[in-house]
Amino acid sequence: MRIAVPLKDERGLESEVCEHFGRARYFAFIDVEENTIKGSEVVEVPFEDHGPGDLPNFIKEHGGEAVLAYGMGKRAITYFNSLGITVVTGAYGKVRNVVEAFINQVLEVDPHWKERIEATKHGH
To answer: Which pLDDT tens digit goes with each residue over 33-47?
Structure first.
């Protein structure tokens, strides 16, 4: 399985999950076999501005089968699902920890991510 995660910086597994999926400049693509991380690569997003479907198609082109993100819009989630890509929202923390928790089915997500993102938009 290949998992895509939006990054705060280009440190890959050592980076933190970027809160704003659409603003991430880098994504980690993590290869998982038999519930173990076998490898990962960091890919810079090749466009500054993006329209609907650009990021899902970028992730699909790089072989992503699942996306672990903190916040993501409903349209993006629908688009990923139409490409057969699983989306998990509310994921936060260090990328390595998030991916390991996900593959071991013990990932704890923030159920209030939507409210938190809304609050930061309004400067609270």
So the answer is: 999 999 999 999 998
